[in-house]
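Hi V.,

You were right to ask for the full record rather than a summary. Here it is.
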Amino acid sequence: MNEWSISRRAIVKALLVGSAAPWVMNSRAFASSCKDHIVRVGSMGAPDSLNPFATWSSFWPLVFTYDFLVGVDAQRHSDRKGFAKTWSVADDSLTWIFKIWPDMKWSDGQPATARDAAFTYNYLLGSIGKPDELSIGQNSTSGMEQIASVSAIDDETLQIVTKAPTRWPIDNYLLIIPEHIWKDISYSDARSTFQNDPPLVGTGPMIVAEFQQAQFVRFAPNPYFRTGQPKTAGMINYLFTTQDPIAQGLKSGSLDYGGVTAAQWADLSKDPDIVVGESRVEQRDYLAFNTASGDGAGSTKALQDPAFRDAIGYAIDQKTIVDRAMRGHADPGVGLVMPVATDYYSDLADIMRHFDLAEAGRRLDAAGYRDTNGDGVREDKDGNNFQLELITGKASGVNEIPIAAVQLVAGWLGQIGIPVSVTQLDSGALNARVASPAKGGGGWDLVIASNWLSTSPHDLLIMGSSNAIGLQNRSYWTNEKFDRYLSEVDVTVDLKKSQELVDRAARLIYTEAPYIMLSYPLVLEAHRKDCFEGWGSQDAISQWGYFPLDRLKPQNG
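Predicted structure:
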């Protein structure tokens, strides 16, 4: 039962030409996935390519098809492993040895060995410094400047030698690709024109078999998966622009799993056929200031002034955002480090701002941003009335920020004499606006957006890196001391030293305030329990790997 029937495929394709939503909401013909044993997932993702070297927006679906060498799940859960079965580091803290699963195969039946892993890393390493350096996608050269060499000792043994102590070899989330598919792809093609069309060839449990952009991704079970072919007949990931059809699909039975809003979560929790869950994750929702000068600068130089940004921080009530916009399903924002990063989190209690509109006003006055003519709108130091543009929108791979949070922020700024106009953009337009000024981005004033990386020290701090401007650093902020802290933490294995460096960097960027952290949202999800068993407890579907698509099985079969 690994294939869709021709009639089923034709019907779904015809109905999905415009949008998946009408079919999920209205159709009763295929309301249940119990009979065909195909898992149906609804998500808000917007994958634009299946080429991991050319995009950041396709974590889902690629994570179900390709393995990380180690990755987050393998370090947090003993029963969830990636391409490597075991790993260790020598006493010199430089030489890492990874034992690859013996006799593992790619989904096309070819052997999957340490040589494929070595090829993946060396493919990236070989591009460094070239005009077509592979630096723009999930499989990126970022961090690889720390690597001295990568080699396959034999089919089951991979060795990575680093230039200085670092946890990068196990913390990176590069997807391991098959050498026999990619060896003849040029760097130029890999970062641009090569689409990596399905069916893909991977070592994960679910292989992308069909991809219709903005509509759906269809997966087939991997017959060569290392623990045995998955018990389900496949998976379909439907792609939506709002979460309403996801909740309706869960209710009707046309979806088995989906991320939901707080209101939907409360409603679905009353359904006896549905299990709801929530868990802390690495997402950070933030307000960013355009700190650029020259090309890409915003409408006022005030955005470049730390005193102005700090004052704005007193006008943001994170607790109200959590209570009203997030309905309690979030932690209040503080600094770069989110609570799930337990080794590094600090509430910065000794320097943390408190919500006080009057204090925000006093600080703006002291910094030279006053309302001199009494019209209720402050002027900048050039004598111009403030009218800031705040852009926001849904980005792929993160939970949607409720518009209520945006409205709250705009309202508070208006109350302190800084009117804000809000522009909502789709994912592509938002990414284009916040790209580096060198690539045509900028010209905005404020952005409310999210990111979701790992809890490695590098990823915790990357939002302030001058090397990540227009990518993870959306404020365009640069600071030599911050960059120095990040460089030091990148070559540190010792946990205590890493904690000290992260804390110094987090305090520095909090004080300079290129970002005001709004919240750390919880993942809210729901799954039906009438068709499949084997779902996770806290994380019904892992946000970092393929779990539980390797172990789901149909009810009573």
